TrEMBL record, chain A:
<dbReference type="InterPro" id="IPR016897">
    <property type="entry name" value="SKP1"/>
</dbReference>
<protein>
    <recommendedName>
        <fullName>Skp1-related protein</fullName>
    </recommendedName>
</protein>
<dbReference type="InterPro" id="IPR011333">
    <property type="entry name" value="SKP1/BTB/POZ_sf"/>
</dbReference>
<dbReference type="InterPro" id="IPR001232">
    <property type="entry name" value="SKP1-like"/>
</dbReference>
<dbReference type="Pfam" id="PF01466">
    <property type="entry name" value="Skp1"/>
</dbReference>
<keyword id="KW-0833">Ubl conjugation pathway</keyword>
<comment type="similarity">
    <text>Belongs to the SKP1 family.</text>
</comment>
<dbReference type="InterPro" id="IPR016073">
    <property type="entry name" value="Skp1_comp_POZ"/>
</dbReference>
<dbReference type="InterPro" id="IPR016072">
    <property type="entry name" value="Skp1_comp_dimer"/>
</dbReference>
From TrEMBL, chain B:
<dbReference type="InterPro" id="IPR001810">
    <property type="entry name" value="F-box_dom"/>
</dbReference>
<protein>
    <submittedName>
        <fullName>CRE-FBXB-106 protein</fullName>
    </submittedName>
</protein>
<dbReference type="Pfam" id="PF07735">
    <property type="entry name" value="FBA_2"/>
</dbReference>
<dbReference type="InterPro" id="IPR012885">
    <property type="entry name" value="F-box_Sdz-33"/>
</dbReference>
<feature type="domain" description="F-box">
    <location>
        <begin position="7"/>
        <end position="58"/>
    </location>
</feature>
<dbReference type="InterPro" id="IPR053222">
    <property type="entry name" value="Zygotic_Embryogenesis-Asso"/>
</dbReference>
<dbReference type="Pfam" id="PF00646">
    <property type="entry name" value="F-box"/>
</dbReference>
Length: 203, 320
């Protein structure tokens, strides 16, 4: 059920990329400037399609909106140290993929407060880092780089396999020593003893 | 997601979000980020950062100070071998916090150009030269425009002269020594420029040099003040010379010379103002409170005050 009415009790149906629908209160939805621009005045006939984002992401975004419904009007980002326990839990319990999905969805829905907090969180992640450290943090390998890396690893693995095979072969030869003819075995033992003697005489 | 050192695909975020992130970063972090890659540099440029002033000081090391309205000022230091592409960046208020940036292909000029690009060619750039760089011409080219120039007395006459020819400041000139002494012909062309301020260390000030100096604020540090020269200067001013002048300040250490105002004002109609009468003069850097003094009126009606503080300062304030 959707309605242009502004009462906070009104629920709107949201459709995710999976085609699933779930409802969100009008008060929470009105924190999205995108929603306000597109649907607030004209209403929506049927579920509102935010089909670029999956259900989990949208639910997470609107969970934040529902929570901040009663907070005073947004007036710039809070310092991370001033965030409430609920806010901190909200961010901390997300993995990186979810965090990126949430910031992208929040950016699309133009939810100023959530977008700002997310951006400030990333800025904080980079605080005090030098250029080299930043390169490590923000530069993720591209598909080509990953492929090249994989090739190198495959080569290394192949080389390691060869070495292992050679080692196994050598071990096999040692094991077959016992099977050598008696004369050859005597000669081998003599060689070993000679080497031992020589090493003593050197001392 | 906890705040930590794990990789984060910042560059895969939409540019709008990247800019949003950069706005929440501190000045020093933004500068570090701009050095990461050409893309981060372009993105940092796109957030339209502004600084209030950039000061470049060429001494043994080359120091670039970047001032911001928030007073979170930065210092970039290029050691005596700037050609190795290494610079140290730290906050003015805390030298421990900072980073060392090393990019072998970056010469001093590249680093300066980088800074100017990031901060969109700041209006106020002051260059202070205490020694010559291997290529002063190239250094000059990377600073598109600069407002102030300070030349140290450690440079020879020819070096000072060459710098004056290469670097022409738009607003302020500070000379710690006058090249070729009082060889007027050579120096006149710098005095007649319509500078906002000129500050000179001058041993013996010729009257004609004073009369052709076309700056609004003139400050001269001298071991001896010649009252007769000042007397003739004021008479010329009454008749219309130095029309742009707002403040002439002469300073000489008391141990060297004392100013006798009665000689300065000899033959000039003036009005003594009681010391209890305070006026505020808007100086170059700050407001100066003028208590008392001697008022003089020019032919066009403009009033100026002759004022001396502790007999080692001579001030000439023009009330425009």
């Amino acid at each position: 059920m959707t309605s242009p009415a502004s009462s906070s009790e009104v629920k709107y149906l949201i459709e995710s990329s999976e085609g699933n629908t779930f409802d969100v209160s009008g008060a929470a939805l009105r924190q999205s400037n995108t929603f306000n621009a597109m649907f607030l005045n004209i209403g929506a006939d049927g579920p509102i399609p935010f089909t670029d984002y999956n259900e989990a992401t949208l639910k997470k975004v609107f969970e934040y909106c529902e929570h901040s419904v009663n907070e005073e009007n947004y007036s710039g980002p809070k310092h991370q140290d001033d965030l409430s326990k609920w806010d901190l839990n909200f961010f901390n319990e997300m993995d990186q993929k979810m965090f990126i999905d949430v910031i992208n969805a929040s950016n699309f829905l133009d939810i100023e407060r959530l977008t700002s907090y997310c951006c400030e969180r990333i800025a904080r992640m980079l605080r005090g880092k030098n250029t080299q450290e930043m390169i490590k943090v923000i530069t993720l390998p591209t598909a080509e780089e990953l492929e090249a890396k994989q090739k190198v690893e495959e080569k290394k693995a192949a080389a390691a396999k060869k070495v292992a095979e050679k080692a196994a072969e050598t071990a096999e030869k040692t094991e077959t020593l016992e099977e050598l003819p008696v004369q050859q075995l005597v000669q081998t033992t003599r060689n070993k003893l000679t080497r031992k003697y020589l090493s003593f005489s050197n001392e | 997601m906890t705040v930590g050192d794990s990789p984060f695909p910042l560059l895969r975020l939409p540019s709008l979000l990247f800019r949003h992130v950069a706005r929440y970063m501190e000045n020093i972090d933004r500068l570090a980020l701009s050095y990461v890659s050409n893309r981060t540099k372009s993105l940092v440029i796109s957030i339209d950062l502004k600084c209030t002033e950039v000061m470049i000081q060429i001494e043994e090391a080359i120091i670039v100070r970047i001032d911001f309205p928030s007073y979170d000022n930065l210092i970039c230091t290029f050691e005596d071998c700037p050609e190795n592409g290494e610079s140290k960046v730290h906050r003015l208020r805390d030298t421990r916090e900072g980073f060392t940036f090393h990019k072998p292909e970056y010469r001093l000029e590249d680093s300066l150009s980088h800074i100017f690009e990031i901060y969109h060619q700041p209006n106020i750039v002051t260059v202070s030269i205490g020694r010559l760089l291997p290529d002063m011409e190239e250094f000059r080219r990377c600073i598109k425009s600069f407002s102030g120039l300070y030349i140290s007395r450690d440079l020879t006459d020819i070096e000072t002269w060459n710098i004056l020819k290469t670097f022409k400041p738009e607003k302020r000139l500070f000379l710690d020594h006058i090249p070729f002494g009082n060889d007027k012909g050579m120096f006149h062309e710098f005095l007649i420029q319509n500078l906002e301020a000129i500050e000179l260390r001058w041993n013996n000030i010729p009257l004609d040099c004073l009369l052709i100096t076309n700056s609004e604020f003139i400050k001269i540090i001298t071991p001896k003040i010649n009252e007769k020269v000042l007397n003739r200067f004021i008479k010329h001013w009454i008749n219309g010379s130095n029309p742009r002048l707002k403040h002439l300040e002469l300073w000489c250490p008391k141990s060297l010379s004392e100013i006798n105002l009665s000689v300065v004002l000899k033959g000039i109609r003036h009005q003594e103002i009681p010391e209890t009468y305070r006026r505020s003069f808007k100086g170059l850097e700050c407001t100066i409170h003028v208590d008392g003094g001697y008022d003089i009126r020019r032919k066009d009606g403009t009033v100026a005050t002759v004022w001396s503080y502790d007999q080692e300062n001579f001030d000439f304030f023009v009330w425009i």
